[in-house]
Hints:
The chain is an alpha/beta fold. It has helices at 11-20, 39-55, 68-75, 82-101, 118-132, 145-155, 166-182, and strands spanning 2-6, 26-31, 59-62, 105-108.
Amino acid sequence: MNLLLHLCCAPCTLYPESILRPRAIAIRGFFYNPNIHPYTEYRRRLDALTAVASDIDLDLLVRDEYGLEAFLRAVAYREEERCQICYRMRLTAAAEAARTCGADAYSTTLLYSVYQKHEVVRRIGEEVGKDAGIPFYYEDFRPGWPEGVARSREMGVYRQSYCGCVYSERDRYLKKKLSLKEG
């Protein structure tokens, strides 16, 4: 099977790649993450992923678009739905890329992160795949979370401290500030 795998970041790439390749699944990575804020964080994640892809010999297709404005327009006044909107943006781009490059299916490393809304990612991935005419390959990669974290640390891979969007950055620092006040 030829699989286009949407990659959210370098650390989340390591475990899914390590279990898919031995199954004779040919993986092509796809980076498209217009939600990441600020731009310096976007570049840092893309640079880390590019380095990891080179280290593990992973073919990488990059849609290098810093799409902050498009992301913010899509979620304005619907901030509570921001994750679903973000997933749909990225998975739609991945499905289109998979179809264009002749992949048999597409998937995402968002299915690896213990911090993502797993069932929402799965539902949107399947909906988008159906609409785009390309199957969504589903697998729950979360059981490999500890292994992927350990491997990324061993490799010295940049590990980000929030999901990526301005809202997740805000939430991370507000929680830290609140815990300091409580302590």
